[in-house]
Amino acid sequence: MDMQTDQAFVLHVRPYKETSALLDLFTREQGRIRAVLRGYRSKKGSAARPFNCLEVELRGQGELKSIARLEPAGGFLLLQGERLMCALYLNELSMRLLPLADPQPQVHEHYHLTLQALAAGHAVEPLLRSYEWRLLEQLGYGFSLEQDSQGRPLEPQGWYLLQPESGFLPVAAIQPGAFLGADLQALAAVQWQQPGVVRTAKRLMRQALAPHLGNRPLMSRELFLRHKESSA
Prior knowledge:
Distance between the termini: 55 Å
Pfam families: RecO_C, RecO_N
Keywords: DNA damage, DNA recombination, DNA repair
Shape: elongated
Radius of gyration: 20 Å
Order of helices and strands: EEEEEHHHEEEHHH
InterPro entries: ARFGAP/RecO, DNA_rep/recomb_RecO_N, NA-bd_OB-fold, RecO, RecO_C
CATH class of the domain at 144-232: Mainly Alpha
CATH architecture of the domain at 144-232: Up-down Bundle
Strand content: 15-25%
Organism: Thiopseudomonas denitrificans
Number of helices: 6
Strand order of the largest sheet: 1-2-3-5-4
Structural class: alpha+beta
Helix content: 25-40%
Largest sheet: 5 strands, mixed, barrel
Protein name: DNA repair protein RecO
CATH superfamily of the domain at 144-232: Recombination protein O, C-terminal domain
CATH topology of the domain at 144-232: de novo design (two linked rop proteins)
């Protein structure tokens, strides 16, 4: 029987039959896949926790795999409060955007590093925005932060509207949803310390992700807002 060993992260878990679970895994070699873990409700399933790097052995050639072995491939990450909410957002975003069985080793590596940086206490906003950007870029949805849709360099005092399919469209004056060229240039230069850049990045990524997420809201965003309200 064909067996494949891979590095994986659990993105989502659902009960399956009496004692099993259906896992959405983000694997290094195969991308996002679905697999059945039998005996999940026993001790066997204790390692199948999100946010921890796992080594898995997978059986099967079809879309739904079977997990023959699953064990930790490193130490467990401690994520709490805001950082746990951010990790849940990474998982939901990956679930919604990554196609099945499409290897994305660079995104997988960036996902792993982002989780480690969250656990290590690094600033949250740059981590999330960088992962969103890498995800869009690797899936073919990226755009230039240095040129407009006609290939001309962005002007610091110019105003631009994002057209996700083609890039930045110059507009004559400020209008709802528009971006100042200087803010986009600072973002392109990864100048997170500049005033307004974090806010610009968040607004830009919201606009860029919207066409790919559709109308269904992200549950992790709602959880994050509730967490902030309860912590206030």
